[in-house]
Amino acid sequence: MAKKTKKPVRREWTPAELRTLKKHSKDRTSVAKISKEMKRTVGALRQKALVLGFGLGHQR
Predict the structure, then answer these.
(1) Cα(25)–Cα(9) distance, rounded to whole angstroms?
(2) What confidence tens digit (pLDDT) does each residue in 1-16 have?
(3) What phi and psi, each to the nearest 5 degrees, are found at residue 22?
(4) Against a cut of 0.85, is the pTM above it?
(5) DSSP letters spanning 1-60
(6) Which top-rank group of organisms is this from (predicted)?
């Protein structure tokens, strides 16, 4: 029998999370550290930052 794959769980971004993400952007915190702290994937963080119009990580 084939394994069932887990369906991704999507969580809305709270205003507090958005403030935290912007603060980390200004502090130039590494994306891996932000990812662990916020319990979100690196891709999700980068995508949200792109939509909001600021950069993350060292590639700025």
Answers:
(1) 25
(2) 778 888 888 899 999 9
(3) -65, -40
(4) no
(5) -PPPPPPPPP-PPPHHHHHHHHHHHHHT--HHHHHHHHT--HHHHHHHHHHHT---SS--
(6) Bacteria
**Distance between CA 45 and CA 52 in Å, rounded?**
11
Integer CA distances (angstroms), 5 to 8, 10, 44, 52, in order: 9, 15, 20, 31
* pLDDT tens-place string over residues 23-60: 999 999 999 999 999 999 999 999 999 999 998 876 55
Q: Which two tokens stand for residue 35?
A: 């990812």
